[in-house]
Specification:
CATH architecture: 3-Layer(aba) Sandwich
Order of helices and strands: EEHEHH
Strand content: 15-25%
CATH superfamily: GIY-YIG endonuclease
Number of strands: 3
Number of helices: 3
Helix content: 25-40%
Shape: globular
CATH class: Alpha Beta
Largest sheet: 3 strands, antiparallel
Structural class: alpha+beta
Radius of gyration: 12 Å
Distance between the termini: 22 Å
CATH topology: GIY-YIG endonuclease
């Protein structure tokens, strides 16, 4: 099973990073209020970045690395993927 690390952008410009086996379903859940209490009051969220991994362990490690990045570095990561330079 693939695991994905994903980032969503909130209505206030905050970038939230998480993991899921289906990032599109997870975004729908975030927008309907399921999970991630830190996103309450910041909906809707929009998927802005995702990357697949082979294992949950890899996904958790990548998520931890991304969460340590500055906001600007996270924006650059999203930009690179959008431009096809992932």
């Amino acid at each position: 099973m693939k695991y994905y690390v994903y980032m969503v952008k909130t209505s206030r410009g905050y970038l939230y990073t998480g993991i899921s086996t289906n990032p599109y379903r997870r975004v729908e859940e975030h927008n309907s209020g399921i999970g991630a209490k830190c996103l309450v009051g910041q909906r809707p969220v929009k998927l802005v970045w995702k990357s697949s991994t082979k294992t949950k362990s890899e996904a958790l490690k990548l998520e931890a690395k991304i969460k340590k990045l500055s906001h600007d570095d996270k924006v650059w990561l999203c930009y690179r993927q959008f431009c096809g330079n992932e």
